[in-house]
């Protein structure tokens, strides 16, 4: 039975690296994967999944309204879909998460999603909320805070390195905009006077 998997973490835990390794493992065994990433993630290039360690791959892009089920069904009909891998899964809509569940349940294709659990204000992203609710298997990928504890939170920072406490939930960025912290240090930074 195919399953819907959600691999989540704070920033810099190696989500994209793990996704690309999983895709390679399928290819090594003669199987075909379909990769997806969010259109709004243009840090490297739209339609590219890139890891901080330098590996990358082309991917289909999704945005609100993209019919992921339809795209996968077409590939499946041609025998080109042994696994679906989704990077930046926090940006999926509720409907798209339901589509991913339908892919696993009706097309019998495993779906592996990788993304952040919460935004910089500790709010669940829409995609993450529904993956946590509907996923068959949930796996936390771990990274560390500056203190050595497990980092679970994403702190948005400004140009000076100070905590950003307000703003839009979605702002694409890397190490220049976000720091992964444990809850204790995240809360300390948020409560510090500006």
UniProtKB/TrEMBL annotation:
Molecular function via GO: ATP binding; thymidine kinase activity; zinc ion binding
Recorded name of the encoding gene: tdk
Organism field: Temperatibacter marinus
Name of the protein in its database record: Thymidine kinase
Keyword field contains Phosphoprotein: no
Catalytic activity: thymidine + ATP = dTMP + ADP + H(+)
Binding residues for Zn(2+): 145, 147, 182, 185
NCBIfam families: PRK04296.1-5 (NF003300)
Complexes and interactors: Homotetramer.
């Amino acid at each position: 039975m195919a399953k819907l998997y959600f691999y989540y973490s704070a920033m810099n835990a190696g989500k994209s690296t793990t996704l690309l390794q999983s895709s390679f493992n399928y290819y090594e065994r003669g199987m075909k994967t379909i990769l997806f990433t969010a259109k709004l993630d243009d840090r490297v290039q739209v339609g590219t999944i890139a890891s901080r360690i330098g590996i990358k791959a082309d991917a289909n892009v999704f945005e609100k309204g993209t019919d992921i089920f339809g795209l996968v069904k077409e590939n499946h009909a041609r025998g080109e879909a042994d696994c679906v891998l989704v990077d930046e899964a926090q940006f999926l809509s509720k409907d798209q998460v339901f589509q991913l569940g339908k892919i696993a349940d009706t097309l019998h294709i495993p779906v592996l999603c990788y993304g952040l659990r919460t935004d910089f204000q500790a709010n669940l992203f829409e995609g993450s909320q529904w993956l946590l609710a509907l996923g068959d298997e949930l796996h936390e990928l771990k990274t560390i805070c500056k203190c050595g504890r497990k980092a679970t939170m994403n702190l948005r920072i400004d140009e000076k390195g100070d905590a950003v406490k307000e703003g839009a939930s979605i702002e694409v960025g890397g190490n220049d905009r976000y720091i992964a912290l444990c809850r204790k240090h995240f809360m300390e930074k948020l409560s510090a006077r500006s």
